[in-house]
Amino acid sequence: MKHNAFLGIDFGTTGARAMVIDDAGEILARCQYDFHGEQSGPMWRTALFELIAQVPFALRNILASIAINGTSATVLLCDAAGEPLSPPLLYNDARASADAAALAQTAPRDHVCITPTSGLAKLAWLSHQPEFVAAASFAHQADWLAFLLHGKPGISDCHNALKSGGDPEMLDYPPWVKALPFSARLPGIVEPGTVIGPVSGRVSHHFALPRDCMVRAGTTDSIAAFLAAGATQPGEAVTSLGSTLVLKLLSEQRVESAQHGIYSHRFGKMWLTGGASNSGGAVLRACFDDAELQILSSRIDPMQSSKLDYYPLLHPGERFPVNDPAYPPRLTPRPDDDVSFLHGLLEGIARIEAQGYRLLQDLGATPLISVRSAGGGAGNSAFNAIRLRLLGVPMPLAHQTEAAYGSALLARDGSRLLYSGHDKSI
User: In DSSP terms, which residues pair with 219 in a beta bridge?
Assistant: First the structure.
């Protein structure tokens, strides 16, 4: 009997991770590459190939498929050969505020693309730059990384394409997007998990991959984390506690609200509705190192409410549950006691999470019944206790907490993974 392995790759905000699983979902290998603060196309290429090289040879030799996730609305402008023409614009880059305002004149009300950090607003901004004349394609991070493996430019998945104007039900762009003067650079759209093609001969030879190892269309990092966590029923949610705070609630209703930074991804026959806050682990890391976080967290009484009213942000600007590029951080007064300060930070982040889920339900999403946790912050017991107190719903353990596992499942199961659990008729 032939044994297969499946590779999932996760490109996050601080590094990239890879995970190999077998047919039963058992983890066979884990790999990691840290960005050390740098974000560029060449560095992403190095990280991708380094991760594949870290996979043991015996597993590389039986890889059946690969899927990659990337940070949502992190984008590149590429030439005809697929090479980047300029540095990438990252997920939280808000330089396209004027272009977003212009898009709002033609886009439907509350469309996710009218925010300054959207992919479409960034493409509009790029269209004014000198290098645009040489542009052949506009790629999301996950699209471009997959292109490096299969060699076919101009293909995206409907999760990454949502913030670039893609219609998740049509798997195409609506007329108002197609009418934009720069729309010809937008990638085609397929379902996440769709087979795009085999790895190129060059990649196959260099890494000793099977010639029939397929590359599947990927997804965003937060949706990959949702897949890994194992939530399948309406009302179940997953909070990704990484550098930023990302909420995803499985809902029977689609919810959109640009003023709150809320949008919905199609997820099988349902919707993943939510948003991403700029608050999160990056703020904690700016104040404390890992050892300090562990020691100080152990001294917090999570059942006691902090007297500090913080809104933890590194810089002005918030995306959800308030969408305001000038929204100010609130990190004062700072007490002399570091335990109290960390308590205030953790409770501030937890309040943003609770506010976000309340807002989703106020706007019509399926009522929240449970929250699973993914990302590095999921292992902080004091933080989880604070969150449990503020959320008021059960917090079952996630099946897996790493987005790379979700991408590995997507590599194994393809688009049918999005229909599992909540819709047995598919």
Answer: 69
Instruction: For 50-74, give one letter per residue: b (16+ CB within 10 A) or e.
Output: ebbeebeeebbebbbbbbbbbbbbb
Summarised one tens digit per residue, pLDDT across range 150-194 is: 999 999 999 999 999 999 999 999 999 999 999 999 999 999 999
Q: Could you tell me how many residues make up the chain? A: 426
- Output the pTM of the full model: 0.89
Bridge-based pairing state of the strands 5-11 and 27-34: unpaired
pLDDT tens per residue across span 201-241: 999 999 999 999 999 999 999 899 999 999 999 999 999 99
Question: What's the token pair of residue 323?
Answer: 């969408």
Give the amino acid at 412.
R
- What distance lies between CA 287 and its chain's CA centroid? 24
Sign of CA dihedral 254, 257, 260, 264: positive
In sequence order, what are the residues at sequence separation of 6 or more whose Cβ sits closer than 8 angstroms to the Cβ of residue 413? 193, 420
CA 251, CA 235: separation in Å to the nearest integer? 6
Q: Which two tokens stand for residue 270?
A: 């349902």
Residue 339 to residues 125, 269, 297, 348: CA-CA distances in angstroms? 44, 45, 7, 14
Q: Give CA separation, 321 vs 205, 229, 249, in Å.
A: 47, 23, 14
Phi and psi angles of residue 282, each rounded to the nearest 5 degrees, phi first: -65, -35
The position carrying tokens 């598919």 is: 426
- Which residues 6+ apart lie within 8 Å of 336 measured at CB? none
Beta strands in 12-93 (DSSP E): 15-21, 27-34, 63-70, 75-78
Cα-based torsion angle of the residue sequence 288, 293, 297, 298 in order, rounded to the nearest 10 degrees = -130
The answer, yes or no, to whether the previous bond of 87 is cis (omega within 30 of 0) is no
